[in-house]
Structure formats: C-alpha cells, structure tokens
From TrEMBL:
The keyword Flavoprotein applies. PANTHER family: 3-OXOSTEROID 1-DEHYDROGENASE, FUMARATE REDUCTASE. GO terms for biological process: steroid metabolic process. Pfam families: FAD_binding_2. It comes from Cryptosporangium phraense. Gene3D superfamilies: FAD/NAD(P)-binding domain, Succinate dehydrogenase/fumarate reductase flavoprotein, catalytic domain. Residues 7-484 form the FAD-dependent oxidoreductase 2 FAD-binding domain. This is FAD-dependent oxidoreductase. It comes from the Bacteria. Keywords: FAD, Flavoprotein, Oxidoreductase. InterPro entries: FAD-dep_OxRdtase_2_FAD-bd, FAD-oxidoreductase_2, FAD/NAD-bd_sf, Succ_DH/fumarate_Rdtase_cat_sf. One of its GO terms (molecular function) is steroid dehydrogenase activity, acting on the CH-CH group of donors.
Amino acid sequence: MADDTFDLIVVGSGGGALTGAALAAKAGLSVVVLEKTDRCGGTSAYSGGACWLPGSAVQQRAGNADSTESAREYLGHLLEAPDKDRVEAFLAHAPELVAELEADPGFEFEWLPFPEYFDAPGRVPMGRSIQPVKIRRDALPEAAAALVRPPVEQDRAGLAGRRTLTGGQALIGRLLALVFRDGGTVRTGHRVAGLLTDGGRVTGVVATVDGASVELHARRGVLLASGGFEGEQSLRTRSGVPGQAAWTMAPAGTNTGEPIQAARSLGADTALLDQGWFCPGPLQPDGRGSFALGVRSGLIVDATGVRYANECLPYDRFGREMAADPSRRVPSWFVFDGREGGRLPAIAMPEGDEAEHLAAGTWVRAGTIGELAAAMGVDGPALAATVDRFNGFAADGVDPDFGRDRDEYDTFFTGGPTLVPLDTPPFTAARFVLSDLGTKGGLVTDAHGRVLRPDGSVIDGLYASGNASASVVGAVYPAPGVPLGTAMVFASLAVRHLSGNV
Ligand SMILES: Cc1cc2nc3c(=O)[nH]c(=O)nc-3n(C[C@H](O)[C@H](O)[C@H](O)COP(=O)(O)OP(=O)(O)OC[C@H]3O[C@@H](n4cnc5c(N)ncnc54)[C@H](O)[C@@H]3O)c2cc1C
C-alpha cells in the first residue's frame, strides 16, 4: 500500500529518533515515526535535555572553554578500547549537527552550566553541555504539543505536562514540530517487533497495532532508535544488567528491547549488553525507583551502616559503586537530618510524598541515631560510629575517606560545602535502590550508524542510534548530555548516509 511505504522508517520517538526524522523530513524524504506508546519522547522527554555536543557555536557564544580538541582529549582519557572511527565521527559531526538544527528558526540551543563527570585532562570548567531553549507549549503546533510525554513526576501521576516545555520536553516538542512542519508522519500505538528483508536488505518493519499485525515498507532504510531493554527483566537478567526493570527511569511500557531482538534475529552483532546509565534511586512506595543527584547534606550507608563512596559523585559513578557490592549496597540507606524540614536533601525525580514514604517504610524516621538504626535494621553502634566520623569530617571540612567536597561537581548543587554535620533531629533514612536512565548495550554500529554483523559486514538498510545501539562511550558516562548527544549525532549520520549524502 502506497500509504505504508516511506523513504525512512524511524522506530521510537526519543531525542535521536526525532532528530533523524526531522532532518530527513527537511531533506525532502518521506518519513514515518513509529512509537509503541500513545506519547512521544520516551526517556528523552523525562530528561534534563542536556546534550553533550562539543565544539559547536553555542559554547563559543557563551564564552565556554570547549573545543573539539579538548573533547577528544577528555574522551581519550576516559574511554577504554574505543572505536576510533565512531568517536571521530561523533566529534566531527557534533558541531555540524548543532549548526544544522540552529539554522532552523524553530530550534535554538543555549549553554547549560553542568560540570563534567571526571576530573580528567580536557575537562571544561562548568561543562560544555548545551540544551534546547525552553518553549511555550502553545507556541508549538497542536499535534506536536499533544504528543509530548509529560515530565516524570506528572507522567507517573497520570497528569498533563506543563505550559512551558524545558529540557527534554523542549527537545521533543521542538523536534516534533519540525517533523510535522516538513511533512513527516508520526504514528503512535505502533509496537515494532519484526523487520522485513529482501535479499538480505532491510526493507521495512512489522508492527503490532491494536492487536493486529501491520507491515510498513522503507525505500531507503529503517532507523532503530527505540531505546534499550531496561524495562524487560528477563533480558536484563540474561545480559547481567544490575538493578531491576521495576526500578528503571524509562517510562512504563516503553523500552523492552524487541527491536534489538528483531535485528539480532537477522544476525546483527551486539555489545555492552550488561551496561546502563546508572543512578542511585530513592525507592518509591509503589516499588518503583527514581533518579537522585545533587546531594546537599546527609550520607549514604550500606546494610552494615558504613559509608562506601562520596555521596556527591556523579550519579552513574555512584550507581556503579552500588553495583560493585549489591548484596550490601542495594538497597542502601540515605541518612539525613531535619535541617530541610524532613525533605530529602537532594534532587529526586520524583521524590515522592514524605507521609506516604513513612507509611510505606521506604523512609524511616527517629529522634536519635540509635533509634534510627533500629528502625533501619542496621547495627546501631556501627551507624553511630559512621555518623560521628562524618561529623568530624564536616567540622574539619575534609573527607579523608572519600574526598567529598573536592571536585567542582560535588559543590555544584549546593553552591557551598557539602560536608554538613548530621546533627539536627529528627533523623530520616530513605531506602535507595540501583536505578538507571536506560541500558546502553545493544546493536553494534559503524560510523554511519549502520548495524553490523559479528564479521563486521553491514546489514543494508538497517541503522541504530541511542540506547538501541552499543554506546560509543562504552561503559563510561563521561559528562551530562552524552546519552542524548550521541543518540542525536548517530541518528543524523544515519540519515546522511541513507540520503546518499556522505
Ligand atoms: C530524569 C532523567 C534525566 C535525564 N537527563 C539527561 C540529560 O539531561 N541529558 C542526556 O543526555 N540524558 C539524560 N537522561 C538519559 C536519557 O534521557 C536517555 O538515556 C536517552 O534519552 C535515551 O534515548 P533513546 O532515544 O535511546 O530512548 P528513549 O528516549 O527512551 O526513546 C525510546 C522510545 O522508543 C519507543 N519504543 C521502544 N520500543 C519500541 C518498539 N518496539 N516499537 C516502537 N517504539 C518503541 C519507546 O516507547 C520510547 O518512546 C536522563 C534520563 C532521566 C530519566
């Protein structure tokens, strides 16, 4: 059917998917975006919208010290066994992509101060991430505005989004507007679970729509930008991804990995399958996890009442500390005092309701550290010793155990010292599990985003980006905005390639 044949089929509707769709539509290709849920944006819509796209005019305009060379140096110190072709393709194309998007009056970025996650050569003070400028919902075409998945707090509560779209909301809203403006088609409720082939070339997809199976055909290619498999426990277990599907930040019902499986059944290679973008996650009364960063006071202990890391570490690094000893550290306890009126002294998305936490036992509260330890089921003298030692560090302004307060990232969210004494009752302990922003192992791709077989040969017509692909940064989370920045760049490179524009 003519209606179901397009130049490009994009599977998924996150930041990478919609970047690819918008650029392809602008280039005059016929494009369809297939999204399995009834809203667009996936985890990208929940995100802060930080994009690590080094070397662009946006950082220059802001007087930021960024450059492609320093980004290369930074990655060079962090990445283990990188695919140099992909890294170079990313570095070369990031500024081009920003210029291409900003050439459109519908798109504008701004620099976002947000320190990079490692003190390594090439790091830029206050980071080099950029974000799409916020936009009012009513400035978007109605069709686009209606499709943007709300922020996580509202989405989980079944509420509508905000009037002004910021961060990931602005990214998804702006990109959707470009897709519609340039004649792209967006179909929600399309769950893609199979790929069509002709003589070894991928020529379309099979999707389930309202329980029925439909085929859609692609003249030039299929881009799998359908997220990872964080929402599918059996795949997580088989692949050895720490944490649980119940604790992931991906929106309910989104990323369960069937497009990755479909590509595997065609012989696609996979890598990094046990990897994710991790974070400490305050356990919610409904059993789900959430995303915490920016600790302002308090400390985190394991099941024996002992600290094991700098609580102010970038979230993926703290998550990896948890994953290093799950039997003791998952769950951990975030112990904090009453100085913020009983609220969690950190940014938590969502934080949850204090009374509901206390009723559910995801938080416990007491007037003394000894009573708190009893409520936590943790050895009282051990917790008391941890708190005493920490309070000594707070008095000295130095944490000889884990170096908290030393890095610009540690103090970024407090604007001052983070070694704050734990001495103001009541004392609260919140259960923290190991959450994630998505898995990041998946299909092996080349510098054009083409999906490869284990022998390095290309599966013609099949491209992947974002968490559906094995990340170009491997097991490391170098800086804010790397998930989105890399997803957007490789989606754009895929579109260039399938357009014959390379
Ligand atoms: C609170 C929060 C803040 C974050 N902040 C940032 C940030 O500032 N910068 C950054 O870079 N990263 C950030 N992240 C991480 C980042 O959002 C994700 O890692 C990234 O957006 C993943 O992009 P993706 O396109 O691969 O997947 P997603 O954005 O999750 O999109 C995948 C989409 O594909 C759809 N889909 C899945 N399977 C199918 C199928 N079979 N058929 C059709 N559709 C399918 C899903 O429903 C979903 O809509 C944040 C994450 C969270 C939770």
